[in-house]
Design brief:
alpha+beta, minor pseudopilin epsh fold, five-stranded antiparallel β-sheet, elongated
Length: 189
């Protein structure tokens, strides 16, 4: 029994030296621990929230970049697969569709899943399309053919958000080069 009391005394002495009493079994979080957790949560929010595409300006920018990437990909795909495509644009609307040119010359749904996706986000419209030989097209439908040699003409596509902001996508013939500019640009920079 002495042996048992001796171990108990040592355990109690150890608890007292570490600042913990024998009667204190549960402890909560300290103020410093709570402050550190809140600081980590705030830093994560500061990194994540700006990346969320919630504003119309972000939707416009994403739409312009997606359209530019789609044009580049169409040109690369046409050159490597020997298939011909066309982009059908409807200025004044959000209409932008891609078709693969079939053996009969008509358009059909492309077999490539990347070309089946919509290019424009909600609230973004094609304001106008400028092709030097046609001028500025602001309504109706326009067909941009993309073959093994790329686009036939220089094309400038102006996208507009519902708030009146613009982004410009410029595609150059025969090289596959496509550029994106913030604002309404009439000529390449």
């Amino acid at each position: 029994m002495d042996h048992y009391l001796c171990e108990n005394d040592i355990l109690n002495a150890t608890r007292l030296m570490s600042g913990k009493s024998a009667s204190r079994k549960h402890s909560g979080f300290t103020l410093i621990e709570i402050a550190v957790v809140l600081a980590i949560i705030c830093m994560v929010m500061l990194l994540v929230i700006p990346r969320l595409p919630s504003s119309e300006q972000e939707n416009l920018k994403i739409s312009a970049r997606t359209l530019a990437s789609t044009l580049r990909y169409m040109q690369e795909r046409a050159a490597t697969s020997r298939a011909n495509y066309y982009l059908e644009l409807a200025p004044g609307t959000d209409g932008a569709r891609i078709f693969e040119i079939g053996g009969d010359g008509g358009g059909k749904e492309p077999t490539d899943p990347l070309l089946q996706r919509a290019s424009l986000k909600e609230g973004v419209q094609i304001a106008d399309v400028v092709i030097p030989r046609l001028g500025k097209v602001v309504e109706g439908q326009l067909r941009l053919d993309v073959g093994m040699g790329g686009l036939r003409d220089f094309v400038s596509i102006h996208l507009r958000s519902s708030g009146g902001q613009f982004w410009t996508v410029m595609a150059f013939p025969a090289g596959g080069k496509v550029k994106v500019y913030a604002g309404y640009q009439e000529e390449p920079l």
